[in-house]
Amino acid sequence: MTEFHDALEHRSATQRQQAIAAALPEHIAHARTCTTCFAEKLAAIEPATIDSMQALAALPVLRKSELIERQQEQSPFGGLTATKDLARVFRSPGPIHEPQGRGNDFWRFSRALHAAGFRAGGLIHNAFAYHFTPAGFMFDAAGRALGCPVFPAGSGQTELQARALAHFQPRHYTGTPSFLKIILDKADELGLQSDSLTSGLVTAEPLTPSLQAEFESRGLDVYQCYGTADLGLIAYETEAREGLVVDEGVLVEIVRPGTGTPVPDGEVGEVVVTVFNRDYPLVRFATGDLSAVLPGMCPTGRTNMRIRGWMGRADQTTKVRGMFVHPSQIDEVCSRHPAIQRARLVVTAADNRDAMTLYCEVEEQGDSLAEAIGDSLREVCSLRGEARLVAASRLPNDGKVIDDQRTFD
């Protein structure tokens, strides 16, 4: 299946270094000149000197917590956008607000689709949400850039999804892996055809070996990619299935968590990304995700750096059913209910489905309070979860707000 999306994927290390040396100083100058955030953060920097990965590593890191604070102080994007000519704006949990510029394939996911076997003319069943958050539009734009028509299925309504799958007979799927299984199981239950699907690209949650094996048994090749609403595509899986190849539109560093210092290749650290996006030129944006550099070149001939994929969070923030859940959101839930003395969100998974349970220490327990807390959890996090009330001093006094007990082996 190996076909390159473009010549950038197989250029030599020397060509890539020369391209970085040419593009990076101009990008730093653009970010400093056209955004108030980087005018402040990079005020003492001479852009012409930032012409390598080593020089880039000396610049300050922009953390997600700082992004949220800046957006609260300077609506809507915290002084990080370099244009007012936008196509759409979004609101993700956090809250974090993201812009979409008018460029074709703004988030660059078409490269990942191509590596996963998507080809022009193949209909895509896109099961990412189009509401509030940009995921649906990310893959919709990528599919159309690749020449693929897109069915905007969105999330939920499992039976309707299965019936649409049987009717339109799409060749490709984009969405979370767990929801793909749910749709296929519903199609089986209803006696509907689902074997038109031959390839899929999933993200937002791990593709477990058991799920991958199940999809393969159906003749469906499913690949993973890694990206964020802020940065777009960061890295993508190829047919070699050996880690994820870094996208050509970003520079990735793996740093010691809580710092901006790169770690040696192979050591687990936090993913920090600089994206060559003229409209939203993020420089050294710390994702909070953990990964590590995978040595060697991809067997497909793609020459860019590889990473091992998502290996957890550097902080307590986690992803549940494709949505980030932050400790600050749990604090917001608690602030709505003064009876809560301490709380801990426990995230588990059974049958490849995520579940959230918010354990709350209270003096007096009651079903109405538990229901009210559960409603607040859904409103604040945009995810359903259960609230369980426990006696005072029952939760560990260790400062942990989110306890992610899932394993991704």
- The residue fraction in helices comes out at 25-40%
Mean pLDDT: 94
Structural class, from secondary structure content? alpha/beta
| CATH fold category name of the largest domain | Rossmann fold
Low-confidence stretches: none
What distance lies between the first and last C-alpha atoms, to the nearest angstrom? 27 Å
Number of structural units classed as domains: 2
Largest pleated sheet:
9 strands, mixed
- The total count of strands amounts to 21
Kindly report the spatial arrangement of strands forming the biggest sheet: 5-4-6-7-8-9-10-15-14
CATH class of the largest domain: Alpha Beta
Radius of gyration: 22 Å
The CATH superfamily name of the largest domain is: ANL, N-terminal domain
Oligomer class: single chain
Helical run tally = 11
User: Which CATH architecture of the largest domain would you pick?
Assistant: 3-Layer(aba) Sandwich
Question: How would you describe this protein?
Answer:
With 409 residues, the protein is α/β, with parallel strands linked by helices. Helix content is 29%, strand content 25%. A hairpin with a 2-residue loop joins β16 (318-320) and β17. The radius of gyration is 22 Å and the shape is globular.
Brief account:
Helix content is 29%, strand content 25%. It has helices spanning 13-34, 36-41, 53-56, 64-73, 110-115, 135-145, 158-168, 177-190, 209-217, 327-335, 367-381; strands at 62-63, 86-92, 96-101, 124-126, 150-152, 172-175, 199-202, 221-228, 232-236, 244-246, 250-255, 269-275, 285-291, 293-294, 306-307, 318-320, 323-325, 342-350, 353-361, 386-390, 402-404.
